[in-house]
Amino acid sequence: MKIIYRTLILMAVTLLAGCGKGGSAAVDDSITEAEVAADSANYVMAMELCGKIDMADTVAPYTERQLCRLATVYAVIADNVRENDAAMMNAVNILGRALELNADSVNAFMKALPVEKQIALRTPLMLIHGRDADMSTFADGDSIFIQDHDIDPDAEHVHNEDSHD
Fold first, then answer.
1. CB-based contacts of 123: which residues, under 8 Å, 6+ apart?
2. CA 124 to chain centre
3. 22: pLDDT confidence band, cut at 50, 70 and 90?
4. Which residues pair with 160 in a beta bridge?
5. Whole-angstrom distance, CA of residue 39 vs CA of residue 72
6. How wide is the angle at C-alpha 44 spanned by C-alphas 41 and 46, nearest 5°?
7. Per-residue model confidence as pLDDT tens digits over 86-132
8. If 0-12 CB within 10 Å is exposed, 13-18 middle and 19+ buried, where does residue 148 land?
9. How far apart are CA 48 and CA 131, in angstroms?
């Protein structure tokens, strides 16, 4: 009798767990609400809704699509609200996480977006690429590289070794 009782309880718990929204679906719904608010030009509400989504959740990591959607909302907010560096910073950080997960999925996501949202994501992308750039290339930026030219400071022109005067 105990086995039947435990089996019924286990089945009921499993059934009830399946009826509720999973973490992924709840996140998708929250992002959808933020997208609707941003698309309606209600940027304050969109920012509040984005802020309620816990990006530090390591128990249920977000998909690259969810990260892309959230980064897009932040980018649209930053594109339309003056003095909103926090939204741009969030767009950069979240889009960077999505790129780390799967750059090809991010590229496919962006290509499917309407042009105005693609434009909004350009700045975060440029900031990400600038953040990740190898700055050693620019280490000696004050020197000028001159190829195949001899410079005589007393001469009035530059003498090219290949030319015949």
1. 75, 78, 79, 88, 91
2. 6
3. very low
4. 149
5. 11
6. 70
7. 999 999 999 999 999 999 999 999 999 999 999 999 999 999 988 66
8. exposed
9. 27
What is the full DSSP assignment across the chain? -HHHHHHHHHHHHHHHHHHSPPHHHHHHHHHHHHHHHHHTT-HHHHHHHHHHS-TT--SSPPPHHHHHHHHHHHHHHHHHSTT-HHHHHHHHHHHHHHHHHHHHHHHHHHHHS-HHHHHHHHHHHHHHHHHSS-GGGGTTTT-----SEE--TTSSSPEETTS--
Find residue 150's DSSP bridge partners. 159
- Rounded to whole angstroms, the Cα distance separating 34 from 38 reads 6
Is 106 within 8 Å of 68 (Cβ atoms)?
A: yes
Helix axis angle, 43-52 relative to 23-39, nearest 10°?
A: 170
pTM of the model: 0.65
CA 114 and chain centroid, separation: 16
68-88 per-position pLDDT tens digit? 999 999 999 999 998 889 999
Structure tokens at 132: 């990740």
**Both tokens assigned to 104:** 């090809």
